[in-house]
Structure to design on (1940 residues):
């Protein structure tokens, strides 16, 4: 019940806003902020009461919704969704503050923001496929409005693109959901769309699994976005208002990765296993491609957007490492990306508010006049390139570690993204912050004000917190991830091999036993080195 | 006997039907139509559906066609209003196409129709097609359609009145 | 000559809705004649009549009940459809009151025709005899021809009526021919008997019967406006008075689908391999061309017409699926669709004024900031049409698709969902105009109460069916 | 008990950095200087205490680990935020905190005129903190924090004058090139985890001989990757190009980061992982070879440069090459020894050059110096001492360490390595004295408007201390008498490697896999330390150094016209002076193609290809839509025609 | 084939021929009234089939059906002609091609 309350609180806040007069902008903003803050605090309360030791759903509630179809209002949080949930409320709060200066239709804006918040929260708590889909599609509407109304010059194109891309993907998922629904009904006799029940009881042959997997994949891959489906993202990001970008990067993209964890892996473990190479290569291409394209962008937001493609590539790679390192890494990287990219978007918004341009070439030398801004930007940028000690590193390393267990080559290719990340971020940083303050338009720019600091500083704190002591975050999903991993373990459906595994670590990784290692070693025994002995 | 009557009658109907379609003057079309309907009444008689044959004459050839003629007169349609269907080259081409199409359809339908094997008529009772017989069926088995037809007519009447009323009020 | 005995199968209780409504329709005519200038009474009578009809529909117990030599049935499908019809007719009447005053349409015959049309729809939904179906269709069509052309001073209205009439009569010819051939090859006009015969015939195809089916499909395809028999609908929707358009896109369409479904699912299930393909083609074409047509439209009524063509494509899926689940989904879909459609048309009516209907999308520019609630309602309704959760349209589509998937029509469903993705585009276009464009013309909207009432009902129905669909689903499923 | 203080060592500079960074502008320069230097000195003192504590450890215990908190983990992977104190760490700790403190003090004087004084010290302290993390971390990842942290600080400090494009470019270049190395390092860490299931230094080193096969593929890959990481950080071929550019930073930065500490991190890391390296003869050869080559190549470039700091930079590259040469032949002690002495004299040299630059108002071109001896005597003296040390003149520290490297490269390596070492030594002596002569001797070529002056005391004092250290640093490892090699004895627990048992394990493992182990017996033959050879080599290297000095003397004092004659029009000289065109090569072969390809990817692939496909699909639908509309012609007869066509089509489909 | 009787298919063929003629009429004529007449031809054509089926199978539903068809035809004619008249008031022409306001 509490969870329901927290989830729907923003929605009711939005309803309340509807009845406020349009003119009283102050009250509107304050109300929205109050709701967002309250929601965040309540979600923190959820976190503190969360039991880390179990993978079971908590705060759950299961009441019939559409009884005739066996569809329930089933909600709950587990380790995988908890942090995303909290991050959603957190970023909503940040975004409300960040949108303080919006002049155009502020009431409608805040309503859209709060409704969006409920939509996103719903996605993360839904434990019924039907309900999940409802929220999944529903949150498109406010986001579409936010991009389309308060966005930049090409906002209409961008918003439609965003909407259609996502919708096309998710509709195929709908077909798969229906199929599963009837399949479950047929095989177990229970008409239900309950995710937990389906997770436990879904049993389909590999061929079908692949099709269903693809349907889910398309929906989530577009959302993530994975490599060939990413083109909506730069457009949407560039055109969206600052807060929209933050939410988009911070939460909406995470819904895709969340979907993979919640559906693709547990529902279709075997298909997931079969598709690992494909995903891995797509992710790697995404990582490298995103980074390369980001490097030559002329628009700050577009650069950050393409960097998101690259970062999310890491997340995907981690998920499909199918081992605890990778998945935990992916989860924490989810959070990290939300924080650091969110911060970057906020910061880009700061200069955009002042200059109404985001072209890199328009800036230069900002470090001189905006020291606070520079420091914040620097921290966010470094976090984004995964400097150890900051949050990005923890996630990236775990992801790479995870994928390394599966395939060293993949890990190597993916790691090259780390180099490229440094290139594009630093180059951009240099061109914006450093060099001479040449452009006369920039001279009068003010440093960040209090409100802007309030939006960014919490993110900066989190950057270091997660970077140095991620335990409070990571332990929330430890149990859930282990459970998930045991579920998708290839051992479940692969005939056991005899020489499999006396090694102490890694459950599904391509383990190198001492025997294999020896033979490997021997095969490539180094030739006697002529230089070694004279 | 039946053969002797049927084929000429059928030919007559077809020719008149073509006359309806290809007559330049609407009045001519209407006259052809009346002729065709009478021909059909003959065919109904041939099929021993006397009641329907009578209705055909009364309702169709009588009432409906009178209405047609009435409207044609009311609207004062002259020959020139519809300059016929072969007036331009484009239309000629299209017409040939349409004709070919029509023959094609007919051929296809004929193909289908000739597959029916019911070639000899059932032995019909004497009452077949009589008013009494039809009436009984109408008032027992088909009483509902009969009643419903009244609603249809009422609605049509109201509608016709609404549309054709002289003054806009 | 022996006297004709009243057949035992006459069952006036089963027929009660038809009788009640006919009586009220005539009462409207009479009251109109003698009632003087105040037409409020007419509205009242019509609404009461519809209410009574809905109530009297439930008089028959137990269901299903067959009467009139099995040519009239009271079953779940028909009951539910009667509810849809009465709701849609009532909403039409409510919508029309102020519209008629504005456009100077005489309400007397107008209401009577709507009620007669409703009678026809009820008959259509309850008929299990081809003659009855034919008559039902004709009652509905004739009333609609007249209603379309009822703005006699308006050339567009005239033209629409003419087009509708000519094409409708043309299609009637096909329908009739189809029925005839079916009659000829099965020896009966009764659907149950036909079902028996075809059952025995099995897949062994009788060419006459098959051709009859083709022709039947054309007839019904015309009535439900499916490609390629849809061409009339955009023109007619555009030309007809807006409340009539709303009515047309819901009630008669639902009735046509009721008959369509009944004929194909109950009379010819045994023949399904032969007609499934045809209907699939038609369904796909309808979705596709409906969407294509709607994409480029700038006139909102035409856009809705094309959208309703693509919806028809979806609904044909239910006919193809032909299970009872499909029937239920058809019911639900139509109900959801009617609420949504009436809401939208209510808004469309509100935006128009005497002499200028403001049907172009650009007339909606900036609506969201002048009349936010109205725009929000429109948004909700459009998203419902698009099939987005949590609105009624989504549940309806979900229901429909699930019925289809259960029967294994996965490919068809995939085509359908892709099409509905395309359809998002044009629904979004309206929203773009409302929210994302600057106001062009001044809105002079008279917020007339009855129209608002209809909009509110539409929105509430859309939301209610979307969020708490359970009870209605339970009602719809049989 | 004292060891518990370990965690404070990196903490002090960190706190200093934070205070300076956030409040530096408010509290004023003096306070900033005090906090910065104070934190470093505090940290040094703590290091002393820890050292004392370490000495008090019971017999047989050679390491102390302190886990501060568990950093992160997943599954059975977990990594602690923990410090490790062992002899190697202590050495490095002293170098970092000691030399660091001195340079901090110096920097107070050097940077005094800067507006962003606080910013400089914030970065500087942060660097020290990161460097300490690097050397104290007890696992690869913590080391990696430091590893990247120092890189990052280096980035900021190189780009300290951020309005200068060259400085920014240099900073970015340094970071990116370092990242290339880090990439390899990271892969190595992952591989290590894959093999060992842990990334703690002690556990890995302990388990390595049991899990890895001598000369096997795995260990070779791991060590190669680690070494690539080291080349990045320590500016070795092929990743050395960033270091000379890094001289754009303020001179104290060059002294601390790009001479004394950060760039030697690679050496430290190799020594830290000596067990792994020792298991892979092939990597060892590569290490030695790269080290030797870098030493020679950088030295040749150093001979031709005119920018005083660049000469020193190449000298640094060259000296680190030495250290790797030592590592490569297994002489880890020698490497560390040279690392320490190098820290002393190179820091002194850089600070000295800074003093010179300071004294002539920012001029760095040696052609515009000369005769500064009399203007800045203290600087000159300390500079000379350090130069002698680096040139390898006994009994200064450089002589001992360099000699040890050369000795081992001959004994444990081969004549080629030794040859490289010797030629580098010759060149070093030459170019260092070229530097001294051009700067301090001869005619003054200083711009007449500039009045050279000696630096303030706060800058010369550190020079004196460092010069002193450079003089006596050699005492750490007196050659010939093996019991007297303090450093060697001290480091013994870290670099102890039992080859015999490792080979046994390897054989065992191979046997289990059903394979035959190659004969390794020759590896176990004891090497005899021939006192004679050692003495001879010492003499020889001293002679080489003197030869080099003499050469420089001939060229730059005696016959100043000679260089001109020799170099004019020589393509070889141009080649060397332009640093073998390596920068240009990288630019043309890697940087530009990447940027071009990226642009292509963006414009062609992304915008036109993928997005084009998406928009194309939309356009196609739009096209269809427009054309489908024309069917809706408004003519009833057309509509009827459509129905008929539909009828026919359905009929055809049906039958 | 019996010489004396006409096979059912010939009746059906007659019906089909008239039906197609009706279709052609609708397609090629532009005069509203003639188009309308063509539609009447189609309805009549159907009646032939209905009656002939009755005749050949000894049924009576077909006749009832054709009775209803006539009824419907009458209703349609009345409404249709009313539409034509009302339209003619606004636009005095019966040329179908001139009714082209509503399109696209």
């Amino acid at each position: 019940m509490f969870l329901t309350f927290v989830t729907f609180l923003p929605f009711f806040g939005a309803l309340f806003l509807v009845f406020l007069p349009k003119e009283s902008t102050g009250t509107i903003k304050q109300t929205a902020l109050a709701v967002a803050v309250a929601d965040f605090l309540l979600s923190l309360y959820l976190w503190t009461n969360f039991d880390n030791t179990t993978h079971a759903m908590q705060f759950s509630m299961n009441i019939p919704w559409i009884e005739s179809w066996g569809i329930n209002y089933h909600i709950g949080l587990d380790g995988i969704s908890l942090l995303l949930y909290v991050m959603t409320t957190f970023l909503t709060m940040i975004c409300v503050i960040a949108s303080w200066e919006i002049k155009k239709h502020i009431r409608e804006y805040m309503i859209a923001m709060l409704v969006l918040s409920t939509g996103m929260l719903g996605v993360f708590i839904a434990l019924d496929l039907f309900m999940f889909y409802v929220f999944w599609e529903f949150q498109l509407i406010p986001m579409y409005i936010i991009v389309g109304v308060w966005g930049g010059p090409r906002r209409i194109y961008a918003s439609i693109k965003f909407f259609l891309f996502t919708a096309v993907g998710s509709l195929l998922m709908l077909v798969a959901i229906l199929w599963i629904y009837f399949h479950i009904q047929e095989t177990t006799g229970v008409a239900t769309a309950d995710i937990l029940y389906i997770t436990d009881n879904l049993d389909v042959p590999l061929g079908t699994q692949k099709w269903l997997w693809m349907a889910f994949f398309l929906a989530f891959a577009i959302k993530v976005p994975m490599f060939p489906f990413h083109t909506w993202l730069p457009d949407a990001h560039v055109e969206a208002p600052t807060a929209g970008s933050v939410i988009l990067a911070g939460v909406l993209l995470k819904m895709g990765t969340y979907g993979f964890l919640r559906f693709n892996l547990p529902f279709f473990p075997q298909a997931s296993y079969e598709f690992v190479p494909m995903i891995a290569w797509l992710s790697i291409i995404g990582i490298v491609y995103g980074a390369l394209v980001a490097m030559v962008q002329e628009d700050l937001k577009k650069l950050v957007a393409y960097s998101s493609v690259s970062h999310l590539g890491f997340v995907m790679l981690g998920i499909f490492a199918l081992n605890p390192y990778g998945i935990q890494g992916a989860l924490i990287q989810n959070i990290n990306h939300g924080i650091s990219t969110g911060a970057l978007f906020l910061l880009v918004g700061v200069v955009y508010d002042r200059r109404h341009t985001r072209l890199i070439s328009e800036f230069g030398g900002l470090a001189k006049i905006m020291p606070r801004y520079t420091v914040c930007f620097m921290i966010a940028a470094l976090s984004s390139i995964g400097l150890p000690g900051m949050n990005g590193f923890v996630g990236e390393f775990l992801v790479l570690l995870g994928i390394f267990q599966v395939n060293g080559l993949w890990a190597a290719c993916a790691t090259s993204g780390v180099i490229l990340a440094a290139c594009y971020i630093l180059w951009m940083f240099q061109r914006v912050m450093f060099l001479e303050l040449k452009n006369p338009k920039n001279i009068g720019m003010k440093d960040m004000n209090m409100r802007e600091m309030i939006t960014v500083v919490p993110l900066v704190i989190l950057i270091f917190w997660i970077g140095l002591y991620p335990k409070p975050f990571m332990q929330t999903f430890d149990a859930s991830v282990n459970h998930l991993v045991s579920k998708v373990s290839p051992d479940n459906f692969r005939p056991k091999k005899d020489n499999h595994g006396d090694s102490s670590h890694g459950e599904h990784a391509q383990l190198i036993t001492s025997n294999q290692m020896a033979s490997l070693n021997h095969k490539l025994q180094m030739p006697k080195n002529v230089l070694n002995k004279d | 006997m039946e053969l002797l009557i049927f084929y000429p009658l059928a030919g007559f109907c077809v020719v008149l039907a073509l006359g309806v379609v290809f007559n330049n003057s609407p009045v001519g079309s209407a006259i052809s139509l009346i002729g065709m309907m009478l021909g059909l009444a003959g065919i109904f008689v041939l099929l021993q559906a006397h009641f329907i044959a009578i209705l055909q004459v009364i309702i169709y050839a009588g009432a409906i066609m009178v209405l047609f003629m009435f409207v044609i007169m009311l609207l004062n349609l002259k020959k020139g209003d519809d300059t016929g269907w072969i007036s331009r080259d484009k239309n000629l081409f299209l017409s040939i196409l349409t004709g070919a199409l029509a023959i094609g359809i007919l051929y296809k339908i004929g193909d289908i129709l000739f597959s029916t094997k019911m070639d000899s008529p059932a032995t019909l009772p004497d009452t077949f097609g009589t008013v009494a017989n039809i009436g009984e069926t109408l008032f027992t088995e088909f009483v509902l359609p009969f009643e419903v037809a009244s609603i249809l007519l009422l609605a049509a009447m109201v509608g016709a009145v609404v549309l054709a009323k002289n003054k806009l009020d | 000559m022996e006297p004709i005995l009243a057949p035992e199968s006459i069952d006036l209780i089963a027929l009660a809705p038809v009788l009640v409504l006919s009586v009220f329709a005539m009462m409207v005519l009479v009251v109109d004649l003698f009632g003087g200038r105040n037409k409020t009474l007419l509205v009242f009578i019509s609404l009461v009549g519809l209410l009574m009809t809905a109530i009297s529909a439930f008089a028959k117990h137990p269901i299903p009940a067959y009467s009139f030599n099995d040519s009239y049935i009271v079953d779940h499908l028909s009951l539910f459809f009667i509810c849809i019809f009465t709701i849609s007719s009532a909403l039409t009447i409510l919508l029309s009151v102020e519209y008629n005053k504005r456009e100077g349409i005489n309400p007397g015959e107008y209401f009577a025709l709507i009620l007669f049309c409703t009678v026809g729809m009820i008959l259509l939904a309850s008929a299990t005899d081809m003659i009855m179906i034919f008559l039902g269709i004709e009652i509905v069509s004739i009333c609609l021809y007249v209603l379309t052309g009822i703005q006699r001073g308006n050339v567009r209205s005239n033209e629409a009526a003419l087009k509708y009439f000519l094409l409708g009569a043309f299609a009637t010819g096909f329908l009739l021919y189809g029925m005839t051939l079916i009659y000829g090859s099965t020896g009966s006009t009764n659907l149950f008997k036909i079902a028996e015969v075809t059952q025995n015939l099995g897949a062994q195809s009788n060419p006459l019967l098959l051709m009859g089916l083709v022709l039947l499909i054309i007839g019904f395809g015309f009535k439900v406006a499916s490609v390629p028999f849809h061409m009339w609908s955009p023109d007619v929707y555009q030309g007809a008075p807006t409340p009539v358009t709303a009515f047309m896109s819901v009630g008669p369409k639902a009735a046509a689908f009721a008959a369509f479904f009944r004929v194909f699912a109950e009379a010819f299930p045994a023949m399904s391999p032969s007609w499934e393909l045809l209907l699939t083609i038609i369904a796909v074409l309808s979705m596709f061309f409906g969407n294509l047509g709607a994409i480029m439209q700038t006139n909102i009524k035409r856009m809705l017409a094309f959208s309703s063509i693509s919806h028809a494509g979806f609904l044909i899926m239910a006919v193809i699926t032909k299970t009872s689940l499909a029937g239920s989904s058809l019911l639900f879909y139509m109900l959801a669709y009617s609420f949504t459609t009436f809401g939208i048309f209510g808004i469309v009516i509100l935006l128009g004024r005497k002499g200028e209907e403001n049907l172009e999308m650009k007339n909606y520019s900036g609506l969201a900031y002048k009349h936010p609630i109205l725009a929000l309602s429109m948004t909700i309704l459009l998203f419902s049409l698009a099939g987005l959760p949590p609105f009624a349209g989504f549940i309806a589509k979900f229901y429909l698709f699930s019925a289809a998937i259960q029967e294994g029509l996965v490919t068809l469903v995939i085509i359908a969902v892709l099409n509905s993705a395309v359809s998002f585009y044009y629904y979004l276009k309206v929203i773009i105009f409302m929210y994302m464009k600057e106001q062009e013309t001044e809105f002079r909207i008279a917020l007339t109460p009855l129209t608002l009432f209809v909009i509110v009902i539409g929105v509430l129905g859309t939301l209610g069916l979307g969020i708490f669909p359970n009870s209605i689903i339970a009602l719809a499923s049989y | 008990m004292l060891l518990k203080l370990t965690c404070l060592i990196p903490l002090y500079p960190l706190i200093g950095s934070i205070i300076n960074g956030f409040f530096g502008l408010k509290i004023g320069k003096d306070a900033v200087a005090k906090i910065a230097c104070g934190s470093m000195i505090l940290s040094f003192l703590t290091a002393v205490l820890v050292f004392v504590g370490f000495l008090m450890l019971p017999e047989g215990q050679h390491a102390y680990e302190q886990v501060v908190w568990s950093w992160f983990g997943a599954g059975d992977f977990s990594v602690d935020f923990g410090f490790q104190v062992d002899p190697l760490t202590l050495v490095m700790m002293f170098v970092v905190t000691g030399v660091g403190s001195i340079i901090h003090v110096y920097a107070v004087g050097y940077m005094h005129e800067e507006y962003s004084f606080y910013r400089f010290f914030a970065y500087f302290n942060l660097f020290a903190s990161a460097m300490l993390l690097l050397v104290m971390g007890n696992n690869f990842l913590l080391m990696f924090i430091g590893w990247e942290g120092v890189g990052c600080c280096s980035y900021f400090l190189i780009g300290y004058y951020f309005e200068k494009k060259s400085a920014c470019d240099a900073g970015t270049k340094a970071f990116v090139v370092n990242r290339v190395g880090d990439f390899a390092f990271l892969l190595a860490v992952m591989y290590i985890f894959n093999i060992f299931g842990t990334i703690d230094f002690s556990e890995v080193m302990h388990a390595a001989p049991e899990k890895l096969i001598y000369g096997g593929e795995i260990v070779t890959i791991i060590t190669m990757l680690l070494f690539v990481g080291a080349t990045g950080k320590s500016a070795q071929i092929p990743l050395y190009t960033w270091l000379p550019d890094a001289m754009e930073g303020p001179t104290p930065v060059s002294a601390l980061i790009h001479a004394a500490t950060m760039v030697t991190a690679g050496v430290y890391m190799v020594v830290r992982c000596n067990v792994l390296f020792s298991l892979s003869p092939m990597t060892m050869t590569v290490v030695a070879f790269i080290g030797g080559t870098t030493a020679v190549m950088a030295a040749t470039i150093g001979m031709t440069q005119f920018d005083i700091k660049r000469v020193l930079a190449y000298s640094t590259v060259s000296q680190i090459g030495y250290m790797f040469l030592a590592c490569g032949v297994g002489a880890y002690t020698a490497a560390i020894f040279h690392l320490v002495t190098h820290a002393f004299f190179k820091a002194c040299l850089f600070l000295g050059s800074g003093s010179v630059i300071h004294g002539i108002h920012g001029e760095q071109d040696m052609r515009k110096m000369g005769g500064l001896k009399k203007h800045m005597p203290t600087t000159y003296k300390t500079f000379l001492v350090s130069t002698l040390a680096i040139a390898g003149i006994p009994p200064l520290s450089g002589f001992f360490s360099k000699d040890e490297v050369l000795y081992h490269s001959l004994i444990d390596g081969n004549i080629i390595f030794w040859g490289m070492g010797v030629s580098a030594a010759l060149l070093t002596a030459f170019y260092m004295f070229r530097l001294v002569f051009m700067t301090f001797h001869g005619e003054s070529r200083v711009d007449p408007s500039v009045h050279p002056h000696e630096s303030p005391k706060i800058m010369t004092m550190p020079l004196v201390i460092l010069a002193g250290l450079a003089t006596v640093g050699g005492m750490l490892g007196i050659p010939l008498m093996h019991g007297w090699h303090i450093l060697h004895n001290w480091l013994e627990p870290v670099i102890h490697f039992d080859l015999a048992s490792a080979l046994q394990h390897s054989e065992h493992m191979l046997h289990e896999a059903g394979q035959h182990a190659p004969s390794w017996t020759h590896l176990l033959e004891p090497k005899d330390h021939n006192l004679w050879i050692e003495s001879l080599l010492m003499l020889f290297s001293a002679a080489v150094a003197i030869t080099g000095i003499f050469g420089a003397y001939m060229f730059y004092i005696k016959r100043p016209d000679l260089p001109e004659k020799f170099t004019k029009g020589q393509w070889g000289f141009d080649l060397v002076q332009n640093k073998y065109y390596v920068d240009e090569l990288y630019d043309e072969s890697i940087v530009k193609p990447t940027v071009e390809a990226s642009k292509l990817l963006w414009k062609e692939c992304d915008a036109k290809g993928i997005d084009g496909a998406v928009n194309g699909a939309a356009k196609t639908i739009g096209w269809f839509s427009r054309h489908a509309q024309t069917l809706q012609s408004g003519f009833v007869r057309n509509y009827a025609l459509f129905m008929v066509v539909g009828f026919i089509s359905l009929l055809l489909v049906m039958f | 084939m019996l010489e004396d009787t006409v096979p059912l298919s010939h009746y059906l063929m007659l019906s089909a021929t008239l039906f197609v003629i009706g279709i052609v009429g609708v397609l090629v004529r532009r005069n509203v009234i003639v188009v309308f007449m063509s539609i009447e031809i189609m309805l009549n054509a159907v009646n032939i089939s209905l009656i002939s089926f009755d005749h050949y199978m000894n049924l009576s539903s077909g006749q009832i059906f054709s009775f209803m068809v006539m009824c419907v035809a009458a209703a349609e004619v009345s409404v249709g002609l009313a539409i034509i008249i009302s339209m003619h008031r606004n636009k005095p022409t019966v040329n179908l091609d001139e009714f082209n306001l509503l399109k696209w």
Q: What stands out?
A: Chain B touches chain C at residues 109, 112-113, 115-116, 132, 135-136, 139-145, 148-149, 151-152, 154-156, 158-163, 165, 168-169 (CB under 8 Å). Residues 101 and 107 of chain B are 10 Å apart (CA to CA).
